[in-house]
Amino acid sequence: MAKTNLYSLPRLPFEFNALEPIISEKQLQIHYEKHHLAYVNGANAILEKIDASRAKKADLEVKDLAKAFSFQYNGYILHTLFWNNLAKPNKQINQNLNIIKKIKKDFSSMERFKTEFSQAAVSVEGSGWAVLVYDKKTDRLIISQIEKHNLNVLVGLSILLVLDVFEHAYYLDYANDRAKYVEEFFGIINWQEVEKRYKEFSK
User: Fold this and answer.
1) Model pLDDT, residue 53
2) Which of 84, 133, 143, 180 could form a disulfide with 157 if both were Cys (CB 3.0 to 4.6 A apart)?
3) Quick one: the chain helix, strand, coil %, rounded to 5?
4) What confidence score (pLDDT) does residue 101 get?
5) Secondary structure of residue 199 in the 3-state scheme
6) Rounded to an integer, what distance in angstroms lies between the CA atom of residue 8 and that of residue 44?
7) Which of 83, 96, 76, 88 is nearest to 35 (CA)?
8) What is the Cα–Cα distance from 114 to 143, expressed in whole angstroms?
9) At the topology level of CATH, where does 25-84 sit?
10) What are phi and psi of 78, to 5 degrees?
11) Is residue 121 helix, strand or coil?
């Protein structure tokens, strides 16, 4: 059997110090080089195990492998989305972006959106993510949570914005103050990238 094509760690779209002072160089480097890489390696290891078992016609624990692969692969994908929706600190938001107009329409204001998104991020049980998704069928923006990497995923809806609230994303800079980290996150959102995703998914 041919060797499985494997996943690789994507390049960051910025330097390690680009998000300072909101996210420090050391925090970002550890998050990327240790934690994101671990999910890439974890997903690859499962693929290799599957290939080896099939080559030997050996039995597989499909249920366990499916759950483990979901965790590792989603960690790899969500982190890739996360890096892409971050940018150098900038308090100015282009109010003419379609996604900003849509947020104001659906949430009544940016402040209301920030409040609801922050509540989702702060209240994730244990480790996980806050996400903004777009439902084309109803033409609605929806805020949700992903616990760990597997639970509460809105299947089929398009992810526009993600915030990693695993402690490994902020512990060096904010200790256990998740709320402060979430508050600062709004200062490093790459709204151009969110706009790009919104245009793609709302066609």
Assistant:
1) 86
2) 133
3) 50, 15, 35
4) 97
5) helix
6) 9
7) 76
8) 10
9) Helix Hairpins (1.10.287)
10) -65, -40
11) helix
98-201 CATH fold:
minor pseudopilin epsh fold (3.55.40)
- Per CATH, 25-84 and 98-201 having the same topology is answered no
Tally of CB atoms within 10 A around 28 = 24
How far apart CA 152 and CA 191 sit, in angstroms, is 25
Q: Record the tokens describing residue 89, joined without a space.
A: 């600190």
Q: How far apart, in whole angstroms, are the C-alpha atoms of residue 144 and residue 150?
A: 13
Rounded Cα distance between 181 and 121, Å, is 10
Residue listed under structure tokens 């420090």: 24
pLDDT for the residue numbered 1: 47
CB 27 within 8 A of CB 94: no
Residue type, 198: Y
Chunked in runs of 10, what are the mean pLDDT values of the chain (203 residues)? 77 97 98 97 94 85 90 95 96 92 97 98 92 95 89 78 97 97 97 97 91
Number of residues that make up the chain: 203
